Amino acid sequence: TTDEALCERCMDTCNRKFPNGLSMHDGVKSFKVIASGANIDPSWSIHVFAQCGGAYSYKDPGTVIKGAKPDHGCTNLPENANLFVFEGLPQHLPSELSTSYHIAYSAESSLYFGYQAYANYYAFKSSNQPPGTGYTRLLTSSEPDDLIDTIPTFSAPRIPFSHRYSPINKPDVVAKWFESDQAPTEDVIVLIDPDNWLLQPLAKYASKVTKGHALAQQAFFYGNPKVKELYQLFCEKNCDYTPDDAAVPYFVHREDLRAIAPLWRDLTMKIKERSLSEPELNQRFKAIQLDWCAEMYGYVFAAAELGIKHTIKGKLQLRDVDSPVTPTEEPRIPMIHMGRAWFPKGDPSAEQWRHTEGASFSYRGIQVW
């Protein structure tokens, strides 16, 4: 089996060739589920889809063959068979377990972050991460809070600029973490948000990371030329580089993140200071939400200046604003990004919490946050 960059436990034949030059799509007419050097597990199966790997969509990928099993023998392939997805494999392949990783997120000490911290830690503990996986809440606070003995935590005081723009806390506390005696030692750091709640082990994603090459979720500004236009206003070196349209979760080699963090903080401050002093800049880059998302651009611009490349991948998370996934896709989502919360329709207790923003998401229920 093959893990592709843009899908998991899969083989994508779109525009691919065998070593002899023969097209994978045109050259494969049938397949059979077998094993090499092991007994065949009857739970193994292969699903075949028309959609190519890396097609960033939560819609049904076009099922061509569902659940081909070892006792089915050879299965003929129709012409629209493109993506092979393997089911029933172990959660962790041996090659994946050789990469250690550490999951971290930044937060402040407040009721708002408190329940997210509890839920985040519960998800970490219940999502079957490999033994030894690190986990840290990166807390911006001048003193320890009441969760510090419950949830693994590194804390550091805020910088004054955070009173003007609180997202600066993320690159600031990450930089201070690396400068401390609690700095991570794992190969890969997985940066998530406090409301990213894990559903699955992340070993197969962490194993794809090498020094100089990270992995990240496709950002909402994916493909927007305004990102490179903005980069030209702030870059000091490597300005011909096209920044990667990356968003959390970030899977980054430890030494790469050590280099990114202080530059991420500096660039975020420069971007935000200029947008505060030049309001017209926010209007110019309104399409990529510069006003609030300066921290995101600080990260991708820091990586670009350092020449650190990201493989941009869809479906590393399912956001609250994404369309519901199909039953086929649901088990493959490694984490959700909460963002908003809903009570069931008709629940009278929801009325006291009803959010004014909720109309566009009414199909999910009554929005309360």
Which outline best applies?
globular
Please report the total strand number as a whole number.
18
**Beta fraction:** 15-25%
Rounded average pLDDT:
88
What is the share of helical residues? 10-25%
Could you list the spans in which at least 5 consecutive residues all have pLDDT below 50?
A: none
The largest sheet, given as strand count, sense and whether it forms a barrel, is: 7 strands, mixed
- Which structural class best describes the helix and strand composition? alpha/beta
Number of helices: 8
Q: What oligomeric state best describes the polypeptide chains here?
A: single chain
Output the strand order for the largest sheet: 9-8-7-10-13-12-14
What is the CA-based Rg, rounded? 22 Å
C-alpha termini separation: 42 Å
Encode the helix/strand succession as letters. Answer: EHEEEEEEHEEHEEHEHEHHHEEEEE
Describe the 3D structure:
The structure is a single chain. This protein has 369 residues and is α/β, with parallel strands linked by helices. The protein has helices at residues 24-27, 111-126, 169-179, 203-206, 226-234, 254-277, 279-284, 290-306, and strands at residues 10-12, 30-31, 45-49, 63-68, 75-76, 83-87, 101-108, 134-140, 153-156, 188-191, 196-198, 213-218, 246-253, 309-313, 318-319, 335-337, 342-343, 366-367. The strands form five sheets. The protein has a seven-stranded mixed sheet with strand order 9-8-7-10-13-12-14, with helices on both faces. Strands 1-6-3-4 form a four-stranded antiparallel sheet, with no helix packed on it. Strands 11-16-15 form a three-stranded mixed sheet. Strand 7 (101-108), helix 2 and strand 8 (134-140) form a beta-alpha-beta unit. Helix 3 runs antiparallel to helix 6. The radius of gyration is 22 Å and the shape is globular. The mean pLDDT is 88.
